[in-house]
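Trying the structure run again after the queue cleared.
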Amino acid sequence: MKAIKYVFAGALMLSISATSMAQDVNPQVEAITKVIVDNKGNAAAIKAPVKEFLKLNKKNPEALAGLGRAFLEVKDYANAQLYAAQARKVGKSKACGYILEGDIAADQDNGGEAASWYQQATMFDPQDALGYVKYARVYQKIDPKGAVDMLENLRKVKPDYPVDAAAGYMYSQNDRLKTALEYYSKVKDLNNVEDYILYDYALTAFVLDEHEKSLQAALAGDRKGKSNAFSRMAFYNYYKMKDFANAEKFANKLFATKNDTVKFKANDFIYYAETLAGLKKYEEAVQAYRQLNTLEEKRDDVNKLISDLYKESGNYAASVDSYKAYINDLGDGAKADVYRGLANIYIAQANDDNVDEATKTQALKNADDVWGTIADRFENAREMALHQRATINHTLDTDVKKGPAKQFYLQLIEIIEPKAEKNATDTRRLKEAYNYLAYHFIQNDNISQAKFYAQKLADVDPGNEMAKQILDIKGK
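Done. Tokens:
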């Protein structure tokens, strides 16, 4: 569950920071972080920017911790610890340096040392909630009661702090999502919850399919207007709840964000297309699917998604064209099931009450052609393809005396009869084939052949009345 959650989180979350940092240094820290991350391993490229940053912030513990955190992001532990130490030196009574030390230890899987640093943060800066929260998160793995006790200490020093939200976050980070949601559900005032915890609440509830709760958290975050991640979560929840009008509203809000501040993901466009389809805005939905082609990671199913959309809207010609483009995109990777999808479009067209009879007939013929291709190209699907061809040709012409399905049933029998072991599908298809052929030959006064297949039918279906009647006919 944790893997699912955090892969999903990567697709949703943009930049909700959990660090304790004064707002006035945030822009500077964000700028230096970008420089360090973009120039990972290039000491020469970051030397001057770091020097300038330090010149402006050498006495600012939050800024120094932010600089150290930037190095932590690129796994440069030496520099991360250097600036954590400086942050502690100039801000002994500030939690940020101790918390960074703890994060460095935690990133290196040293939970005991991390907990020790977080505990020091609570001692030197008891009003900073993050030390308590991070201590509890680390300690919960080895001593759940001790972790809860630490959060209760936080409640004592900061009665207004949403401790239940902190507990929810703690359990969430340790993959106890149901317990996390139990604590999150106790929070009465979501406006008093820090953004990164509020987002985790929304995401945890979403993963557990608790969409009403997830939506409440997402809307609370969205009202703050700080991150489009909450708009995305609201959009996704409304989509899952099939409230397509509101889903479209929040999707439009997300897409109105400038591209340089949000990286769109496949589900953004897929859910948006399906939202528009739910509103019967099919052409707009098609354009949403086409946006998948703008992503760095190319997909080969875009034309299939568009084809499915056209099929749903009853535009079978466009559906077929898009599906054929999908097959072309796959090239040699198009297997029997892919071609079966094309046949299914024609079958859907033939079964549509809004389609005229001539078009229905042609659709069935087209489906038969596709199954013919499957039978010729894919040996492992030949049996299924022949059965489909028999069914379609019988539908096209129900005159059993002419026997339009005869050749396909005969081929089907050749495949199934030699099998040492036959499953229920094999037996059902043999019954169908023997029944058709016995009736075909009796209609053509070929009594011997009719009895031949009637006997085979009786062997697999002893109670079959037609088989009995044919076998009772006198003469050869």
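The chain is about 70% helix and 0% strand. Worth checking whether this holds up in the mutant runs.
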